[in-house]
């Protein structure tokens, strides 16, 4: 009986230990499942971060040619601005020259008109025989008396 009681006590202790081990095992299994879930979440986050990093790398590789293109276009823009400035300066210079030439042309046109009128007047007087009243005759002008005096006529 004593042996049976001892055996029953041992069996009871063994069952308690097993129960404790089973509850501890259950706890560890739950912890393991929880850690697996956390690990899965962390893996998903890591995958998303890697995906974002790849997108950033792609954007950086796309930006490099764009930056080069931007620098090239900015240089072309500066060159065109310099050309426009030179053209504007040349345009101002040509406008000034044109104004001076226009003024000179008007003066010459006035002089030509006056000379043309004087020429017409002289031609009219020459054809009508009226050379007695020369206007503004200068000593070097063709109206001077030595040019219009008639040569002596010899009697025959």
UniProtKB/TrEMBL annotation:
GO terms for molecular function: microtubule binding. Residues 132-156 have a biased composition (Low complexity). InterPro entries: MTUS1/CCDC69 (IPR051293). Residues 1-90 form a coiled coil. It is found in: Nucleus. Residues 126-156 are annotated as: Disordered. GO terms for cellular component: cytoplasm; nucleus. The keyword Coiled coil applies. Keywords: Coiled coil, Nucleus. Belongs to the MTUS1 family. This is Microtubule associated scaffold protein 1. It comes from Periophthalmus magnuspinnatus.
């Amino acid at each position: 009986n004593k042996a049976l009681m001892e055996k029953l006590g041992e069996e009871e202790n063994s069952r308690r230990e097993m129960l404790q081990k089973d509850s501890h095992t259950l706890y560890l299994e739950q912890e393991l499942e929880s850690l697996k879930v956390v690990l899965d979440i962390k893996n998903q986050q890591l995958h998303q971060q890697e995906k974002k990093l790849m997108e950033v790398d792609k954007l950086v590789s796309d930006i490099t040619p764009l930056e080069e293109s931007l620098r090239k276009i900015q240089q072309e823009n500066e060159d065109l601005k310099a050309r426009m400035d030179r053209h504007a300066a040349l345009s101002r210079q040509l406008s000034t020259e044109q104004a001076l030439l226009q003024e000179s042309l008007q003066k010459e046109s006035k002089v030509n008109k006056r000379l043309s009128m004087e020429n017409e007047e002289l031609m009219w007087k020459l054809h009508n025989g009226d050379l007695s009243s020369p206007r503004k005759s200068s000593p070097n002008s063709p109206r001077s008396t030595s040019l219009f005096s008639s040569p002596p006529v010899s009697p025959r």
